[in-house]
Every structure is written in structure tokens, then in C-alpha cells.
Design goal:
The chain has about 210 residues and is α+β, with helices and mostly antiparallel strands. Helix content is about 45%, strand content about 20%. The protein has 11 helices and 8 strands.
Length: about 210
């Protein structure tokens, strides 16, 4: 990789700004990997063309993102996290939940990340269930990993004591009515999350 000159001037700085706009939300190392030194990044921050939104995390001043911007920032700060539970429902447009914080799943055995400047909540999953049903969505600013609707329904039943059975039932009904998952998928994730007995009567009522 050939880095641009360390003395940002004219068109070189403009090119660096264009790259920042393309990246949207990015880490310093991503900016460097795109071919620019950290001096370019410092100059763009000084000129308010780029904003530092967290430790080592930046966003182009022109980047407006959308309602999922916090998800993109969370994905950059906690790469191992997967959007789960009520946050995944919100992402998929299922149910009426509007969580104030982003819920992220972590594999059991990992440490909780220290992120103080983003509204995050964490929930640890077994390594087997953590890896199941993960979808990757390309959003403005980056890739976000989110559990599928069927996996999210099973997770909501698994954690019904945290959010309430009514949340899980609403998610199940809307997922089924909206054809967001098949019965085979719902049963498969129910087995994986060990909530088959809990979900069975509600699944049977759908058919």
C-alpha cells in the first residue's frame, strides 16, 4: 500500500475528504488502509470535515446516516457484537418495541466491552446459539450484524423473563403474519435455544 504524502495540501486533502465521505463512519485504521496517513485525518478533524465520535472512531461531517446510525457505530466499536432481542425486532420492523439502548449479543466467555459514550446493553449467549441466525446488512457507513427474525423470536422467548412474554408473543405473531420466517425456521431456532416446550403451544396456534 502506498500512502499519500504526509503534508496534506489542495487536491490531496480534498481526495482524503472524499474518502471520509465514502467511508461514512470509520476507524482510523480504515482511513489509513484507504491510502491516507493519520496526518490527513488530523487535518480533516481540525477543519471540521470529520468528527471524532468516539475513541478511534470517526464520521464524515457530511455523513447523516439514518435511524440505524447508532447500530453502525456499535458495530465499529464492538465488532464481536450481534444486534439482538428488542433491538433486532426494531431493526426488522417487528412489533412495537422502541428500545432506548442497542442490545448486542456476545459469546459467553468474552469480557464486556467498556463503551461509555454509546447507549449499549449486552447479553451473553452460548457460543453455539451466538453463531446461529446471523445476517449481515450493509447500511450507510458500514456492515451491521443482526439476528434473523426467526432467531430473534426464539431469543425473545429465551429471555422472556427480561422483556416479558407479551413481547415474545407479539414478535412471533408479527413474524408469522408478515411471512418473515417459515414454521421450519421457527422450530429449528426454538430447538437450538431450548425453548421448544415453551413455544410449541403458540406455534401450534398459528397453523
Amino acid at each position: 500500500m502506498i500512502l499519500k504524502r504526509n503534508s496534506p495540501k489542495g487536491s490531496h486533502l480534498h481526495d482524503a475528504e472524499t474518502t471520509a465521505k465514502r467511508l461514512g463512519v470509520f476507524r482510523a485504521r480504515e482511513f489509513v488502509a484507504a491510502g491516507y496517513s493519520r496526518e490527513y485525518l488530523r487535518r480533516l478533524v481540525a477543519r471540521k470535515r470529520v468528527q471524532q465520535i468516539g475513541r478511534g472512531l470517526y464520521a464524515s461531517a457530511a455523513f447523516e446516516g439514518n435511524e440505524h446510525r447508532t447500530l453502525v457505530e456499535a458495530a465499529k466499536r464492538v465488532p464481536v457484537g450481534v444486534v439482538c432481542l428488542v433491538s433486532a425486532l426494531r431493526f426488522h420492523g417487528i412489533g412495537t418495541q422502541s428500545p432506548a439502548k442497542v442490545w448486542l449479543a456476545l459469546p459467553r466467555g468474552t469480557n464486556y466491552p467498556r463503551v461509555r459514550d454509546l447507549p449499549l446493553r449486552f447479553c451473553k449467549f452460548s457460543r453455539a446459539t451466538y453463531a446461529l441466525g446471523v445476517e449481515e446488512h450493509s447500511l450507510p457507513g458500514g456492515i451491521v450484524r443482526v439476528y434473523s427474525p426467526a432467531k430473534t423470536v426464539a431469543d425473545c422467548f429465551k429471555f422472556r423473563n427480561k422483556f416479558g412474554l407479551d413481547v415474545a408473543l407479539e414478535a412471533l405473531r408479527e413474524t408469522w403474519r408478515g411471512r418473515r420466517a417459515t414454521m421450519d425456521e421457527l422450530n429449528r431456532f426454538a430447538r437450538a435455544c431450548r425453548v421448544t416446550n415453551v413455544m410449541r403451544p403458540y406455534l401450534e396456534s398459528l397453523t
